[in-house]
Amino acid sequence: MKVQKQQFVTIKGTKDGLTLHLDDSCSFDQLLHELEEMLSLKQYIQQDGPVIGVNVKVGNRFVNKKQREKLELVIKQKRNLMIESIESNVITKDEALRLKRETEVISVAKIVRSGQVLKVKGDLLLVGDVNPGGTVIASGNIFVLGALRGIAHAGADGNRQAVIAASLMKPAQLRISDIINRAPDFLPLEGNELECAHINENGEMVIERLQQLTHLRPNLTRFEGGI
Q1: What is the DSSP string of 167-207?
Q2: Are 117 and 152 in contact (CB under 8 A)?
Q3: Is the separation of the CB atoms in 82 and 104 below 8 Å?
Q4: Which of 6, 81, 106, 192 could serve as a FRET partner for 14 with CA atoms 20 to 30 Å apart?
């Protein structure tokens, strides 16, 4: 009985080029060997003609710099193929720490007074007021359990999905990513309802009741009960 050899490399054509699915259960050397064999087939050896983009998916395998170079060498050798991306489900410890810093919630209990600037990576949960002349800045969302009378800049690294929420929304200026809205440009809602600012589908900053946040940003469940 002939035993079928396990296939470690799968090639799929897409409208944008080729996608290589590389098995993560074999050794890297086995992977390279089979990849070389498969790309040695006639249809992949074309030194002329347009360059074809290749997306490489390595699953639960971490690929270091040296291994990436070996993959690139095997894929490009005598072929009109060019790696556009190498996607892995595994990241380094440094990358994990960076992501943690960018997504964690920084809780601060204080009053941000005139002339003071409070800046954080990730989301900011401020228990206190932002007085006129005070500034709060976050790469993520900003939630103020108090009065926002100064300047708030959310999504400071370019995240237009960020929101700014406050118990009392009376800002001198709001900014989300690169969109700025000064106090005279909008009318706060009547009453004492909690409010949030976000950028709508037209690229405009608008103020909504905080209850709308569930529909506007459904992934923001971690704060919905806290404000």
Answers
A1: EEE--SEEEETTEEEEGGGS-PPSSS--EEEEE-TTS-EEE
A2: no
A3: no
A4: 6
Q: Is 30 a residue whose pLDDT tops 70?
A: yes
Give the whole-angstrom CA distance, residue 138 versus residue 119.
6
Query: Can you read off the two tokens belonging to residue 7?
Result: 């296939």
Q: Max CA-CA distance within the chain?
A: 82
Q: Are 8 and 27 in contact (CB under 8 A)?
A: no
Least Cα distance to 37 among 4, 75, 66 occurs for: 75
User: Do residues 195 and 169 lie in contact, with contact meaning Cβ atoms separated by under 8 Å?
Assistant: yes
CA distances from 161 to 118, 189, 194, 199, 205 (A): 21, 22, 19, 7, 11
Residue type, 15: K
Query: What is residue 3's predicted lDDT score, i.e. its pLDDT?
Result: 44
pLDDT over 70 for what percent of the chain?
A: 80
